[in-house]
Amino acid sequence: MTTGGHGTDGVERRGLMFVLSSPSGAGKTTLSRLLIERMPGLRMSVSATTRPMRPGEVDGRDYLFVDKARFEQMVKGDELLEWATVFDNRYGTPRAPVEAALSAGQDVLFDIDWQGTQQLREKARADVVSVFILPPSASDLEKRLHSRAQDSDEVIRKRMSRASHEMSHWAEYDYIVINHDVDEAFAEVQSILKAERLKRERRTGLVGFVRGLQGQLQG
Ligand SMILES: Nc1nc2c(ncn2[C@@H]2O[C@H](COP(=O)(O)OP(=O)(O)O)[C@@H](O)[C@H]2O)c(=O)[nH]1
Ligand SMILES: Nc1ncnc2c1ncn2[C@@H]1O[C@H](COP(=O)(O)OP(=O)(O)O)[C@@H](O)[C@H]1O
């Protein structure tokens, strides 16, 4: 699916699709923002959703907020790489920006649920790296949902009651990070991305690079 760009060391490689999933409130938005701020060469995939905008969210930055009719049109027009229904709302990944970023050699970060992760894996297994974020405890999860102060008590109750179901998919992920402390969890997620970027099979330019080195040694 990707053509490739250059890694920070100048060797060409395929872009990767870096997926963070977790039960609501475990910290994937926080960790995603830090990754985008601190990791060059990584772009956020902005999902389309039919859910109402939360206070502080910006259309086009946090999500593309669309109505049900527009979402339906995106599904029918094959404009979405994957989509799913979560908490009675629909969420999907617009295909074009992801393909453009990967072709330009950028990695793409996805904050999507397990249903979307399964769909990406079916489409591009070798290019998907998935991380599941767990909260340290149920009470921490509840505290975080309240501290975010963006959802009503009823919505928070719904999110808590779905958490166990969402967590049941943890074993489908490549890596598991427990978010006790934001800085530590960030360092772990960052290490995963750094190591995955160095994987031999994504580094399409290595054959040429090593040939060049051998040529220098012989010449
Ligand atoms: N499959 C899929 N899931 C998405 C997408 N965008 C967001 N989600 C997931 O939908 C769920 C609800 O997201 P949201 O309403 O923002 O609440 P959050 O859990 O507090 O981030 C989360 O599990 C997100 O990862 C998408 O494009 N596709
Ligand atoms: N390690 C942590 N310790 C304490 N609070 C955290 C931690 N990680 C995230 N939070 C807070 O918990 C709330 C939910 O985090 P958020 O990133 O929005 O979760 P998600 O995107 O998974 O729903 C936010 O208020 C965030 O600031």
From TrEMBL:
An annotated Gene Ontology molecular function: ATP binding
Family annotation (CDD domains): GMPK
Subcellular location: Cytoplasm
Binding site for ATP: S22, P23, S24, G25, A26, G27, K28, T29
Enzyme class per UniProt: transferase
Keyword Ribosomal protein: no
Location of the Guanylate kinase-like domain: 15-194
Name of the protein in question: Guanylate kinase
Organism: Bradyrhizobium cajani
Gene: gmk
